Every structure is written in C-alpha cells, then in structure tokens.
C-alpha cells in the first residue's frame, strides 16, 4: 500500500522502522498468534504503543479498537509496503568471503528476493556454485542483467571498484544497489537507488555505548 502523490510523504524514520515490524510479526506468525494489541507489540519491541499506532497510521492504521491487530493481515500489508511480494531478482558482485556468506544467507529468500548469480574476476571461483548460485565472469554482467531483468545488485567487491560497478549497473537497468563496500555511493551520482551498509559504523556505536556505560558505572 503506497501513499498517494498528493498525501504527506511518510518520514524516512518511519520507513526505517518498518523492517523491524516485519521481523516481529514474522515471529508472531511462527508462534501461531492470530492477533496482538499495540500494547503487547510495544512491550515485545521495547517501544511505546503510541509510537506503533502513529507509525501504522501513516499507512492507514490496520488496527481495530478493542481487537488490536490481525497479525496475518498486518504482516501482509507491511510486506506489501516493503516490496517483499515483488519477486525482485538480484546479483552479487564479488565472490569473496563476504559475498559467499551473503549468498548462503536466508536474508534474501525471507524478503522475497532471488539471488540469480554472483560475479567475479577470479578464475579460481568462476564456474563454481555457492549455495546453488553460479559464479560468472564479471565480463558477462551487463548481458546477464538485461537478459534476466535484474533489479538489485549487491556490491562486495573492492571499494576502489564500487563507482565503476555502479555505472555499469545503472547502464543495464538495475534499479538498486546494496553496497557493502567502504566507498559510499549516492543515488544522485548514478541515477540508481542505493543503500550503503556500514558494518564498521555499527561496531563503533557499540563500542561507544559500552564505554559510556563503563564510565557511568565508575
């Protein structure tokens, strides 16, 4: 369910919280829960019930007073909003340790994304299969993306090659990049949607919070 063009845009902060709702609702489905109140969901997620209601009201609410939320219905609606049902096709560029770990991860299939191939320049890995995903020569990238209507590219290649890869991907119709390199890419530079993943930033924030707690405890 998308907002109409003449309606107030949903804030990026709300959008960033939707995947968390998706995960918790999936857990509830695995527990065979049919409904849940905003108060109980808030307790599980360690947020306020008011925050949940405000977030979901951006998309129509989905709850009923005195009943709460139908878990299956809400999970389906959030899946729709996040594009989980679009059956997007992806490739991974870079078949090193990180690329191989991602290829074997359930993160894609759980979110409706199919990894169709990996690409690399190393003859030692080209021609192999990583968790049933074929590793192809990167020279075939453009043709493969066009022929298979690839929507998403995951970059796990050297940082120095990120911009060149983004240009190649934009030229063959790929719609989005999930960038794991240390080079930050911007949608405005390449005309393609980008999500930069900075694992080091998250680790530094954890270290900061540990240090702050240690200082408070002294």
Provide tags for this entry.
single chain; alpha/beta; 2 domains; Rossmann fold; 9 helices; disordered N terminus; Arc Repressor Mutant, subunit A; 218 residues; 3-stranded antiparallel beta sheet; 7-stranded mixed beta sheet
Quick overview of this protein structure:
With 218 residues, the protein is α/β, with parallel strands linked by helices.
Number of domains: 2
Radius of gyration based on Cα positions: 20 Å
Structural class by sheet pairing and helices:
alpha/beta
- The CATH homologous superfamily of the largest domain corresponds to NAD(P)-binding Rossmann-like Domain
- Whole-Å distance between the termini? 50 Å
CATH class of the largest domain: Alpha Beta
Low-confidence stretches: 1-6
Q: Fraction of residues in helices?
A: 40-55%
Strand content: 15-25%
Strand order of the largest sheet: 6-7-5-4-8-9-10
Give the CATH architecture of the largest domain.
3-Layer(aba) Sandwich
Shape field: globular
CATH topology of the largest domain: Rossmann fold
Number of strands: 10
Give the biggest beta sheet: 7 strands, mixed
Average residue pLDDT: 92
The number of distinct helices, counting runs of at least 4 residues, comes to 9
Q: Can you write the helix and strand succession as a string?
A: HEHHEEHEHEEEHEHEHEH
Description:
There is one protein chain. By secondary structure, the chain is α/β, with parallel strands linked by helices. The chain has two domains: 12-82, Arc Repressor Mutant, subunit A (Orthogonal Bundle); 87-200, NAD(P)-binding Rossmann-like Domain (Rossmann fold). The protein contains nine helices and ten strands. A seven-stranded mixed sheet has the order 6-7-5-4-8-9-10, sandwiched between helices. β6 and β7 form a beta hairpin. α1 crosses α4 and α2 (38-45) crosses α3. The radius of gyration is 20 Å and the shape is globular.
